[in-house]
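Tutorial sheet, problem 5. The four components below are modelled jointly, 440 residues in total.
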Amino acid sequence: MRVRVEVAVFTVRRGVLEVLLGRRGGGTWSLAATGPDGAGGLDAAATRAVEDMAGIRSITTEQLYTFDRAGEEVAVAYLALIDAGRHPISPGQDVAEVRWFAHDDLPSLEEGQPAVVAYGLQRLRAKTSYAPVAVNLLPDLFTLGEMQAVYEVLLGRGLDARNFRRDVLRAGVVEESGEVRAEGRGRPARLYRSAGGHFAVDARERRVARAISSGDDPPA
Amino acid sequence: MRVRVEVAVFTVRRGVLEVLLGRRGGGTWSLAATGPDGAGGLDAAATRAVEDMAGIRSITTEQLYTFDRAGEEVAVAYLALIDAGRHPISPGQDVAEVRWFAHDDLPSLEEGQPAVVAYGLQRLRAKTSYAPVAVNLLPDLFTLGEMQAVYEVLLGRGLDARNFRRDVLRAGVVEESGEVRAEGRGRPARLYRSAGGHFAVDARERRVARAISSGDDPPA
DNA sequence: GCAAAAGTGTTCTTTGTACACCCATGG
DNA sequence: CCATGGGTGTACAAAGAACACTTTTGC
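Model answer (structure tokens):
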């Protein structure tokens, strides 16, 4: 039985959630994919698939689910989040074109891959509620307004700026850089960076992170 | 690359969380395992593995994680929950012995399988907080006292009976059967059955289920 | 001076948690 | 009659959600 690794790479640009796809000459659009052969196992294969397709290095991935494809192949699906601005893409060997596509306007994909994208999106949205996923989608330094905008795109709804500030700062997921940026008109915003630590680290250690109920159910 | 399917089957008996293991003549103890060949793909292979090892049919499984084993094999791990009382076990073809082991007193297992058990347990405990996992570990009809005891074993701590009753009944995960059972001394308890539906179905549809933060992180 | 975005606290509602007593049966 | 487990409601604490105004800049 053949084993494949496929990676759904997401970014948020200009308020739109996008997916990274590549295409061989004249072929169908596809997620970054490869066989798990070579050093390092599945996780390494996922990283390598993205690097080989789009020239993007040092991304973090997370295993999503393993699909079977008509009993002949298993596809181990991964999720990756990056800031498109910091990672310019360029087609790798054998790749005619790589592009970001809005997640709700994807071209026809290879067999089985729509399910990977759909499940990746579901997991991404679920994680939004309890993990600081946005820091993976933002530059090194970012304003809380930018961070909030990312969350709003992922969640598909507006958030209250005051509550957002309070919760993010209290959770300790970001730290002030001391710098400030004037983005045009309006008062300049303080710039923050990721504080590295994950959520659910409040003082009482009793706090529990949350997930949308469907978050880790298997995909349909 | 070789593909294997391995299933960590859990039950709760007499207040102890147990794992189902089998052993070929003279061999090492092992989880139910098989190749994914044959009809029906990975999920069917998981069900078949348990049936072939222990003669247990019609269990529900859930995919956990896919491990790579030294770059030579990938193991797709599954979680299954059953009521040991309703499913007597008997060794299948080529199986010398099948047994339930207390989860904290396992024998030496095949390579890589301790990680499967550990991750299955982590996921099981995480799901406990937001899904009615206990109904899969109980007979058709059960008392709320029995159900609470299962949760206490999974969570490793005592629960307040009043709050437990209120929350379970409000969540609508069980329904009264109308029957009553005298279990010895003490007032007879009402018998309930699973109401089928899943959690997080409260009236306002605003309710969000919860998960321990580490619940769907990859295993170490 | 006005449009635009950043920044700051408080109130209310909901959820979770702690807690004490009576009820029905077996021995 | 008493030991054992079943069944019921209320008070307090914590978390989440809603909400208005002042500050700083570009134009």
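Marking note: Chain B touches chain A at residues 1-3, 35-43, 62-63, 65-66, 68, 71, 74, 76, 123, 127, 129-131, 198-200, 208-213, 215-216, 218 (CB under 8 Å). Full credit if you identified this.
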